[in-house]
Amino acid sequence: MTSLPTETTGKKLGLVIDLDTCVGCHACVVNCKEWNTGGYGAPLSDLDAYGAEPVGSWLNRIHTFEVTPEDAPASIVHFPKSCLHCDDAPCVTVCPTGASYKRAEDGIVLVDEDMCIGCGLCAWSCPYGAREMDPVENVMKKCTLCVDRIYNDNLPQEDQIPACVRTCPAEARHFGDLGDPESDISKLVAERGGMDLMPEMGTKPVNKYLPPRPKTHSTVEPEAPKAKALDAKGFLGWLDKTLEAL
Amino acid sequence: MGLHDRELNKSPHVSDEVRKTTCYMCACRCGINVHLRKGEDGQPKVRYIEGNRDHPVNKGVLCAKGSAGIMQHYSPARLNKPMKRVGERGKGEFEEISWDEALTTATQWLSEIRNVDPKKLAFFTGRDQSQSMTGWWAQQFGTPNFAAHGGFCSVNMAAGGIYTFGGAFWEFGSPDWSKSEMFMIFGVAEDHDSNPIKLGLAEMKRRGKKIVGVNPVRTGYNAIADEWVGITPGTDGLFILSLVHELLKMGKVDLDYLLRYTNAPHLVIDNPGGADHGLFARDKDGDILVADRATGKPVKSNAKGVKPALQGVCKYARGKVARPVFEMLADKYMSDEYAPESVTERTGVPVSQIKRLAQEIAEAAFEKEIILDQPWVDMKGEKHDKMIGRPVSFHAMRGISAHSNGFQTCRSLHLLQILLGSIDCPGGFRFKPPYPRPVAAQPKPHGGSVPNTPLAGPPLGMPRGPEDLLLQEDGVTPQRIDRAYSWDAPLSAHGMMHMVISNAHAQDPYPIDVLFMYMANMSWNSSMNSKGVMNMLEDKDKDGNYVIPKIIYADAYNSEMVAYADLVFPDTTYLERHDCISLLDRPICEPDVMADSIRWPVVDPATQGENRDVRGFQSVLIELGARLGLPGMTNEDGTAKFKDYADYMANHERKPGVGPLAGWRGKDGDKHGRGEPNPNQVQAYIDNGGFFEAHLPEEARYFKHANKHWQDWAVEMGLQDGPVENIFQLYSEPLAKFQLCAEGHMEPIPPETHKQRIRDNMDPLPTWYPTFEGDAVSETLYPYNALTQRPAAMYHSWGSQNAWLRQIHGSNPMFVPSKICDEKGLKDGDWALVSSHHGAIKVQVKRMEAVNVNTMWTWNAIGKRSGAWNLDPDSPEAKKGFLLNHLIHELLPPKGDGMRWSNSDPITGQAAWFDLKVNIEKAPNQDGPTEPQFPKQKRAKSSPTNIEYGKEWTK
Amino acid sequence: MHPAISVIFFTVTSGAGFGFVALIGLGVPMPESGVGAFFASLIAGGLAVAGLISSTFHLGHPERAWRAFSQWRSSWLSREGVCAVFTLVLFAFYALNWVFFDNRIGWLGLIMAIGALATVFTTAMIYTQMKTVPVWNNVLTPVCYMLFALTCGILLAGSFGYWEAAVVSLPFFALVSIVAAWGAKLMWWQSGETLSSRGSDAGTATGLGSIGKVKLLEKPHSGENYLTKEMVHQVGRKHANKLRMISLLLGAGLPIVVCLIMLIAGANGFLFAVAALAMIAGLFVERWLFFAEAEHAVSLYY
Ligand SMILES: Nc1nc2c(c(=O)[nH]1)N[C@H]1C(S)=C(S)[C@@H](COP(=O)(O)OP(=O)(O)OC[C@H]3O[C@@H](n4cnc5c(=O)[nH]c(N)nc54)[C@H](O)[C@@H]3O)O[C@H]1N2
Ligand SMILES: Nc1nc2c(c(=O)[nH]1)N[C@H]1C(S)=C(S)[C@@H](COP(=O)(O)OP(=O)(O)OC[C@H]3O[C@@H](n4cnc5c(=O)[nH]c(N)nc54)[C@H](O)[C@@H]3O)O[C@H]1N2
Ligand code: SF4
Ligand code: SF4
Ligand code: SF4
Ligand code: SF4
Ligand code: SF4
Ligand SMILES: [Mo]
What ipTM is given for this predicted complex? Predict the structure, then answer.
């Protein structure tokens, strides 16, 4: 079972994250923790919560990068990261217990925490830092793609989406079926040149990232003005003419 | 293996009940759905908090702080019982007492004052969201010494806007996100309108429209902006006026708009040295004159069908000449002083960028004009069959307002918007109800202090001119303890809370007896010169009595300020009390929606922890009012008029038919806006998800400053009592009057010391002058700027007790531009000494490129006093975190004249946090902790070590 | 990577133990029976078992360790468990026969030796398979592990003093093995595969490389987390070089000198034991570095 599913429905649920609009507000991070700590599997605990070295487990985190082009000033990109639900998920195949698995039905990668021995190998094998061992419960935690929301009949239909997507105030997170080229998010990916992270790792991530749109650099020269600049005299003339027309 | 997935409960039980209320992890006031589920002890416990999709503010989304509400509500730093101080001030040593003892003590202290001299009570309420009630309480008590935090927060923004066009950003209005073609955001890291701004930016992005960020630091909103203007702090005014210069030169201003809605044609008396110089030319009826374009003759500005001139000298009376405002402003801003070439060096903005942006703005406004087929009628009765939009919008916050030139800079930005004709038009900036509300429609400030007598009106308001200052008989000494509405800061519309402690300590203008504060961490992040403030609070006179004799403080948590109180009222958390987010106060409307909302106890404090005995502060205040016998809070027979705050919310009337809440008024709850009190009103709110909203009629949605439909609707809804004239004040006559006072032409006359600065800074046309601290300290000693920014995931000091948020921001580095790092040999993680004219701090450095080359910055309010907030005394907040406040002084460095001016805007008194000039050097000792450090504050109780929140539900 | 003591102890001791088991199984001359055989079995089996037990200290839920045998079809850790237990069961049977019946069953020994080497191989593969740690993801990793195991086995076997019966000179065999093992290790060190040599950098980790140079400005959380503690471990270059020298001196230098002495002056059980201990001590240092120096993909963005 810890092998990857050989037969699938072709459905690949995942997230598309828009680096062009993410303002790095951490809303998705905290809402994810809040939803999941009383939900799927063990709580997301916090060690030394009010102490000198607090450490908790989280399923989603935001990095902030500075990107410096050769010929333009540096810019900042806020970068959310959670499990990418890879097609070739090494975290699944390394797992000795079968706790880690990828669902055939929708491609979600999950940990059955009751089976997890907490060996940490899956976290080692993940290039994306998407798995964290819970510091108190000692089982491996990871993004569940909110599997306990997206099919949950106790929630209204419109809320059957991941917590992070529902809460993101900048609409930087999109959820859907990336296996279906006709889905809204597949189209978004196609339109915006959605990319894979570290393709060289061969993990074939399902989640995609939309790159920041190109910026205008401060030294870009103005085009020749459409309206001619007016000198003081010209200004009065213009004023009269314009008022005349009103 | 096939399609046999494991068994998995995909529909787990979520919660037993959802209760809808309003978030208070910050002042944005989003609607929240609080999911409750039975905890191990059988009591309801918060399972999950999400945004309320129906709510006008957040439309379902929730920020990081809001999502961490669980940890705020169950924080181990919560106060549980009233306390009286037993140790020395500042140590944090308390004894728990009963509510009765606490209220009896407070009543005794306060009634002594009220019987003799009510102004000896200074009642300052911090980031209060119930100011209409607390202000009313102060008024009934009879002390003028009331304000909330606005004076140190962003009064420049508010006053700059109200005095210019009867609105401002944030609660007053917002960009037309769905129609703007171009959006510029100045000096905003997070802002109060946290979620709406993000939703709006997302909408602009979705529509593919251009966003320009003007900010020395390129994080957050500026990171996603399509273009970044990495401006030098304190110079936005110059940059904006340079854009104005370019637009005027291109003839890209909306003359029709200016003629209709602004004082551009109004005639200003040109009589240098005369007692009327700079005032509007008026006829004998007192009506302002304009020059008729055809004849050049003066006519009433409000005459029907008048076609006023915008240029040319007009002889408006015998021997008297006047010129239209527009000509004056064209002269001023078209001068070379504001040419891009003249401002580029100071602002750090390239000439090409200024020129290009001016063109892009002009193009968006005039080439991409929007036309809505929406007929409407203006206040003059003229019918329009269309609404014409100039789709450029702007937003700004403390980056421009928290400077000593902030009032004028805010005015400059509004000038720019008005010249473009983009205020309250489709695609431009839009008023939110109840705005527009110009100065004339606002109360004046009220002073006085008569034993056992209420003030004649609210303590805070908008002065119309010098006649409304609150001065003592001598015409010089301030009436108020914070020196608001005095020559120090004539238009200090929000008071000056940041000066209260230092003035009370200096007993200048007079000593006070009780300092009563609520929700403001004044001994820490809320004050400039935090250490000095701590000393003032601890200071004793020669008899061994505290210089500030009695301090009452209401807080919900064990903050740094609690340690300095003599008597502590423990407030509830935001999930345990009634609150009222009222249209009389700081409303939560959106441009198309008039809205207000409530909080209600979604959990009962009695079930939320052992020995928890807390009360909502507003209810406490109402009970105190009754005990003191304050009018409005007491019945004829001396009994309490209101049971508690909820009772007040439903039954208090500000004027007949208008009360704190607008929805479901009338006995049967069928009236909105106006109507007699409804005893079931609070329940009606609860049933509706905690809020009320009414949508504006389509024809009332734009041009509200001149829109008859809006006026009628606003009157019907109780937002105003009659039509309000709102002419945009490009030229501000009140400022001209203050200048005349300084010239000695108008009463009252300011003292010699103040004349020059009033003349120089209170220019009636928006202007720019260098920030005071920058001007006062040596450029070689302190060559750099230092700023703070709001972290999106942390709210001032109160986020650090939150077990989740403190993992994100548990300590703060100083982000230092790479150029400075290279010059000073600083690497990531190095300890450095950052110094200002006032002191030095020791901090860790983080190198950064995407920042103005002369500006370093850090996250605000992460540093904590050791032991405060029930955190481990060795927590990273105390040992690696720091406050920039230790470098900022409430006074400017002494000048030659021996005067020490307050570090504030000279017009509004706004604290000039961002004027700070610093130097940085590598610290000789490369070990932590940060400096300064303070003696440990006693922890009220120990905090749990580990948290496994929600474990009971996961089994 | 975080150099966890339990894992270092596990790989070194179980490597040595299974190496020894392999040599026994291959029929290296040993005491015929009784006390000598008992001690040899105890040391071989003991080291292997101690290593395995130690490895469970690394687990969050050791009580569920039995589950780790289930996924041999895909997981190297699972295979390692299966191989180890399989080999140890065979070894127990072999040792019983040996100690009590004076009977070293040749065919069983052979299977056992294959099992032991397979165990060491699977251990190595746990690390080798990690594309996230390029320096491990190298054919030389299992070569080193197996050669180290064999060398330890030879030196341990030699300690029992039965070298004379050997077909080849045991000290010479040991010398060759030591040189081969450390030679492989030197090549491993040389190969020095890094994230950047594999084409990964902050640019590919973020997909932002095409825009410009990518640098982390702020970590997601101001403090540490599981990932930074587990995957991001920095050792100073100087420090690392010093430790390499120590591991070479202890693990290679000293045993080589001892072997040379034995080649000249004749073999000696005590000297073999000294060489074995030095080797194992050297391997502890080598193994610490194996983890501590390994850069994980996570370090690209933390
Ligand atoms: N260096 C620097 N300093 C600054 C600023 C800056 O930009 N730079 N900004 C300034 C500005 S604009 C502001 S507004 C101030 C903000 O500073 P403060 O107004 O002091 O804000 P907080 O730190 O959030 O603290 C307010 C207090 O309210 C308490 N509190 C929280 N919730 C409740 C509640 O439900 N009931 C009661 N009764 N109390 C509660 C908290 O425990 C805390 O003690 O900081 C100012 N200080
Ligand atoms: N998450 C969160 N939200 C908050 C708060 C919080 O503590 N946390 N606090 C609330 C409060 S009380 C307030 S007052 C608001 C304040 O909201 P903001 O106005 O967003 O407050 P600041 O973080 O002070 O941001 C000031 C911004 O101005 C920039 N700046 C500084 N000087 C200049 C300048 O001269 N020119 C320009 N163009 N930019 C400049 C700074 O780099 C910074 O980005 O936020 C409110 N919202
Ligand atoms: S909530 Fe949205 S904008 Fe905020 S950090 Fe997450 S993805 Fe970015
Ligand atoms: S992102 Fe990491 S944890 Fe998630 S599936 Fe891919 S490899 Fe596994
Ligand atoms: S930590 Fe748990 S899920 Fe991860 S590999 Fe080990 S047993 Fe599997
Ligand atoms: S999908 Fe769910 S579990 Fe995954 S990051 Fe989002 S909120 Fe967290
Ligand atoms: S912005 Fe966040 S903290 Fe503020 S009210 Fe809204 S959800 Fe609450
Ligand atoms: Mo503020």
Answer: 0.96
